[in-house]
Amino acid sequence: MRAGLEVHQQLATSKLFCDCPSELSEEVRATVSRKLRPTGGELTGVDPAAQFEASLDQTFRYEVVPTSCLVELDEEPPHAINPDAVEVALELALLLHADPLDEIPVMRKIVIDGSNTAGFQRTALVAVGGWIDVDGTRYPIESVCLEEDAARKILEDRGEVRYRLDRLGIPLVEVATGPEITSPERARAVAQAIGALLRATRRVRRGIGTIREDLNLSVEGGTRVEIKGVQELRLLATYATEEVARQEMLLRVKAELGRRGAKPPEGEPTEVTELLRGVKSGPVATALARGGRAFALALPGFATLLGRPDAPGPRFGRELADHARTAGVAGILHSDELPTEAVGEEAVRSIRSRLALAEADAFALVASPDAQRAVEALARVRRRAVAAFAGVPPETRDPLPDGTTRYSRPLPGRSRMYPETDVPPVPVPRERLEALRARLPELPDATRERLQSQYGLPEDAARQLVQDGEAVRFEALAGRGHPVPAISRLLLQELPALRARPAFREPSDEALGELLSALAEGRFAKEGLAPVLEAVAVGGQRAGDAVSAAGLSLLTEDQLEAVIERVLDSNAALIAERGRGALSPLMGDVMREVRGRFDGKAVADRLGHALARRVERASPGT
């Protein structure tokens, strides 16, 4: 494989072309509906991705929130580009050894999927060239750009897509690598390294959705495919692995079609509604019961190439189904997965006879309450089947939670770009670059080595603090005298475990300092760190109140002894059966009551002694 990355990171500044704050909001004040249409780019051609989005004929409804203004609604021209965002982008360019332009131009990139009210996204080219070192290998950096983030998709249903304008216009810095990445593991390592460098600027936003990766990948004999919007770095290597397998499957299909002497399908869909009247269950029966109609498309030479649903790995039938769904149908059935319990052998034979299929031929079947959608879905299936003769079509794909992807739209081209006429270019004087160069932040590798030597951190912990962007906060807390092990656990284990919670709010350094002080003062045991932090970060409480809310007031030794004796009394049969071997389950029972209210090691010692006394008293001759 050959791959390149585009890493997009939100910046911790106000929005790119207005003064609105870069904050998400749940308070909707109004909605506005729009339709978007494709236009020609600078070279007058219409971008194929824009044409595809226009063919979906969707209505876009935009939710107006307190953190949006007339600029986001495209009812007011953009303001001057945010100078703070430009400075962060220039600083990052220097850290990547890239060459900033003397003058930063702003372009419009045509996007009519509804994610931008104007029908285009503004993007500025800041620097070109450069490189980043990852484990001793230099990976080239092709460009550093500054662009506005898209609106936040809230809901999609029946031809209408709902977006919220809070995210629209948040500054994004985009780092694009060359196509020199040659393995899934390397793709993840390069993305981690770029992310660490972005966080070294200390001016990027944190949390789910603030950093996203686009993976551009091809295999030998294939073409470039873009997997757009990967948010979970841990899955990046999985997406790459799955895409390699998918492209290899497509190349095998191409080779087999050539071996068979097959020709691209040319026929039109044929109505087969009356042949399926006997179907009593499944999606076909549901569609026909709603007054729908069924159509089938002949796929000459495709028999056995579409794949059974239970076959491992990617299947060409899923490629056809993904394209059909873009026409608004639920999916397709195809001959390789038929007959089924719902669509039996007699129905399959009738369809094959109607289409005059040979043994080596396949067919695709669509049933829908909307006959026009069914016909259009099969037209898209036919176009995808024709593309199979070329191998791997260039396209954009969406990442799915299971590590696979699905078809989104054709790959955009040069025709989507044209100059922005409302924002003047930004000059970059040499003096400004020299001033930035003189105060560049410490590089991630240098920070990692210093954390190891200065604080005695293990290499993996120091590396993780740097990669997660927590090095600055770690040093701030350590500088106040808080114990290093507790800080590491807090930043590397407990906080990451909470960030996916919907109500999570990033605690301030002061709040974390209060929590660590309460721990050091003995107001709760270290085992209670997680529930107390949860009360702070999810419940929004102060550390002192969080201890009480979590029910973690410390136990006295007498109270602990009472809990231990009660647990021993209620487990007399277990003790009689297993003797001292009952310690582990008994420890679990005790800790359920005292976790966070007494040190775990001390609990284990006291429980062990109490259990030993019970066993000795019960032994013969005692």
Structural summary, described in words:
39% of the residues lie in helices and 19% in strands. The protein has 622 residues and is α+β, with helices and mostly antiparallel strands. The protein folds into four domains: 229 residues, no CATH class; 122 residues, GAD-like domain (Gyrase A, domain 2); 78 residues, no CATH class; 62 residues. The strands form four sheets. Strands 1, 4, 6, 7, 8, 9, 12, 13, 14, 19, 20 and 21 form a twelve-stranded mixed β-sheet that branches. Helix 15 packs across helix 16. The mean pLDDT is 91.
Question: What percent strand?
Answer: 15-25%
Overall morphology = globular
**What can be said about the biggest beta sheet?**
12 strands, mixed
- How many strands? 22
- The figure for the number of domains is 4
Query: Would you tell me the structural class of the helices and strands?
Result: alpha+beta
What is the helix content? Answer: 25-40%
Radius of gyration: 30 Å
Helices, by number, come to: 20
Any low-confidence stretches, pLDDT <50, length ≥5?
none
Please report the distance between the alpha carbons of the first and last residues.
73 Å
- Kindly report the average pLDDT value: 91
For this structure, the quaternary state is single chain
